[in-house]
């Protein structure tokens, strides 16, 4: 289990991925974004997750460069993730999209590159491109996002390389138990986006009651629940205080009873699109 902020999980290819990081979904380019990335890295975060469609890779790259210089770190100290968007799925378009992301970020490579959504009829060719990038040593790990079990089965049928990560919506109202079981069985690391359900869970009475018992915030309880399930998590925040608070989850442990109570909150309820029925 992840025991401190810079602890890692080992992906099936041996690459070590931080168990906790900063997500920047819906954070616009500009000083606020740059400062959020810098605050996270200064506080000890070593994983930053972005995507082409977020349209903020320039600011993420700037924040990374400034943070490395100010904190005496090198590029090797960070784990940076981006994702190829639906419009660029396909062999050559995906290769070009990777280069475009690198250019915006100002990096020579990525630690993890993901297919953002399982667009029917397109993700297999995109995966071939990711396999090429990986085989050429251009990226340290490759994976997918928002893939359900049948998508993973279809992708792995004929793939040369098995996905190392599957980043999906995961929170107490969408516990994804069958998918968690499948990915664990196949050695694919599950990663949570929207772990706080975009803030919808912060006033939940069940979680508030549990949080009060531990003297923690609801957000801290949820993020701790993620880690105890072995799920890598990347909460988003642009406030330095919240960035620090989100990471203050390594001085307590949820009991088995409280873990089970939170598990029981599942409603199969999504805040984002359904991977089997989306239109972008």
UniProtKB/TrEMBL annotation:
It comes from Cohnella candidum. Residues 34-266 form the NADP-dependent oxidoreductase domain. Gene3D superfamilies: NADP-dependent oxidoreductase domain. The keyword Mitochondrion does not apply. It comes from the Bacteria. GO terms for molecular function: oxidoreductase activity, acting on the CH-OH group of donors, NAD or NADP as acceptor. The active site is at 54 (proton donor). PANTHER family: 2,5-DIKETO-D-GLUCONIC ACID REDUCTASE (PTHR43827), NADP-DEPENDENT OXIDOREDUCTASE DOMAIN-CONTAINING PROTEIN (PTHR43827:SF3). Keywords: NADP, Oxidoreductase. CDD domains: AKR_AKR5G1-3. InterPro entries: AKR (IPR020471), AKR5G (IPR044500), Aldo/ket_reductase_CS (IPR018170), NAD(P)_OxRdtase_dom_sf (IPR036812), NADP_OxRdtase_dom (IPR023210). This is Aldo/keto reductase. Belongs to the aldo/keto reductase family. The record marks 83 as: Lowers pKa of active site Tyr. Substrate binds at residue 116.
């Amino acid at each position: 289990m992840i025991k401190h902020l810079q602890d890692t999980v080992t992906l099936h290819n041996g690459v070590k991925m931080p168990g906790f990081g900063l997500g920047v979904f819906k954070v616009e380019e500009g000083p606020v974004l740059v400062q959020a990335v810098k605050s996270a890295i200064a506080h000890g975060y070593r994983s930053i997750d972005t995507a082409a469609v977020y349209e903020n890779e320039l600011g993420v790259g700037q924040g990374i460069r400034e943070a490395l210089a100010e904190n005496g770190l090198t590029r090797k100290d960070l784990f940076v993730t981006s994702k190829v968007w639906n419009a660029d799925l396909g062999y050559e378009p995906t290769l070009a999209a990777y280069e475009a992301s690198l250019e915006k970020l100002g990096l020579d490579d990525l630690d993890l590159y993901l297919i953002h959504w399982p667009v029917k009829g397109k993700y297999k060719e995109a995966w071939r491109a990711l396999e090429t990038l990986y085989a050429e040593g251009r990226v340290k790990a490759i994976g997918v996002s928002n893939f359900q079990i049948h998508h993973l089965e279809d992708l792995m049928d004929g793939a040369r390389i098995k996905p190392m990560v599957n980043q999906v919506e995961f929170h107490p109202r969408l516990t994804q138990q069958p998918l968690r079981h499948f990915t664990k069985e196949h050695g694919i690391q599950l990663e949570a986006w929207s772990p706080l359900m975009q803030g919808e869970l912060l006033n939940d009475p069940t979680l508030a009651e549990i949080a009060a018992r531990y003297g923690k915030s609801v957000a801290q309880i949820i993020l701790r629940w993620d880690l105890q399930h072995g799920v890598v998590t990347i909460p988003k925040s642009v406030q330095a205080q919240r960035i620090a608070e989100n990471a203050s989850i390594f001085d307590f442990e949820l009991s088995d009873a409280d873990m089970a109570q939170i598990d029981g909150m599942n409603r199969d309820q999504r805040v984002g699109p359904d991977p089997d029925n989306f239109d972008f």
